[in-house]
# Entry
Amino acid sequence: MTHVDLRKQAIAAYEQAYSASDFEVIQARYRKKLLLELLEKHQPKHVLEVGCGWDSIANHWQGFERLVIVEPGPQFAEKARKDTAHLSGVQVIEEFLENVGPERSTTSYDLILLSSLMHEVPDPEALLVSAKALADKQTVIHINVPNALSMHRLLAVEMGLMDSVYAQSALQKSFNQPRIFDLKQLKALANELGLQVMDSGSFLMKPFTHGQMMTLMQQGLLTQEMLDGLWHLARHFPENGSEIYVNLKLED
# Structure
């Protein structure tokens, strides 16, 4: 089996696993909240969204003049086409970003979104290099990924359930996610590739696993008010939210 076949197989497995993970829908909602705050702050006109999943940012924000969606998953790409069919200035490319060079992307981007993606690919350095090739001095590159130092991982280590916060969890295995970052590692990777960190942080404190969080919600013990509180609580623990983010630009 070729490298391309393996990547396509991983994408198919991810599409199926993502659809079956109930709390991931909640997690994605707060991830979108982070993105919307970023969009409102920068007001980008030309946006590149890499890996849109089931729910492109176009479903929540239409302040762009031009949106290019690069999505290798055929089911995700087809959903993005249907969702954006009524919008002007949207292009969906069903491909891996590494195969979409500047010659296929003539737009100069204000914002490149690598949301919930870097931890899923076998070569995150190559992905970020590909994004960098499409950036200029005005471009903001946004990355968010699950956090190795998330509260629920730290708790699992202290309970003796995991040997290390960097160990692969059952959910990661089902999603075919080969790697998990902490904030220091994510910043170091960006710096190694000639990118400057504008700002960084984490969001949504998550004390328990996805499955445990969903059980608490179903039992009525975890309310929407509590979830919103956990979102705000990450301000006090900037390295320990369930996911981390960095906003990058080309080095001066």
